[in-house]
Amino acid sequence: MDQAKRRKVYSDLARAMIEDATWVFLMQQVDIYATRERLTWTPRADQWLHFHQASLGVH
Asked: How many domains, in total, are found in the chain?
C-alpha cells in the first residue's frame, strides 16, 4: 500500500521491459494536455483520464 514503494516497483519493471526487450513496442502514444489556472487536476502516469478528481475554481 506504500505508494513510493509501488512507484519504485513499477519504475523497475518498466526499465527491465525496455532493457531486456521483453516486448516489441509498435506504437508509443504521447498525450498532450492543456490546462487553465483555475483547473485543479493532475494527469495520471497510466494515461487514464479520471476527471472526477478534477475541480474548477472561480477566478
From this structure: 1
